[in-house]
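User: Fatty acid-binding protein 7, brain. Structure?
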Amino acid sequence: MTGLDAFVGSWQEQSKEGFDEMASALGLPADKVELYKAAKTAISYGKDGDGWVINVGLVGVPGGREFKFHVGQPYDSADIDGSPMKSLVNVDNGKLVEQHTNQSLGAEMNIERWIEDGQMHVKTSCSGLSMLSKYAKV
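Assistant: Predicted structure:
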């Protein structure tokens, strides 16, 4: 498989390193930090005509979000606490390379996703800090 095809399907977060520092960089309120730290993110990717659809939520918590996008074209999304973002997804050597800008704070977040040994690895960078998460296909 090439490009996004390797990402198609449902994924559940198994581990995350560097979350506390990243939560601080994102300005998450203290009450949300503990919630998100304990929570596991669920993500699914699928085709939508000539574009893509991503569903993002927390395992066991109703009300996830769905975003539709085309590679290389900006789209509207939201961060973990629902704040509006402008986002852009590109593909580079089998990796998803995402740029997100929080519209309220002007904060920029960069995410790289890649598949390695059957797991999706996700490196999130913001304000000079990084977090690494690993997901298993479910």
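The chain has a mean pLDDT of 90. The CA atoms of residues 55 and 135 lie 14 Å apart.
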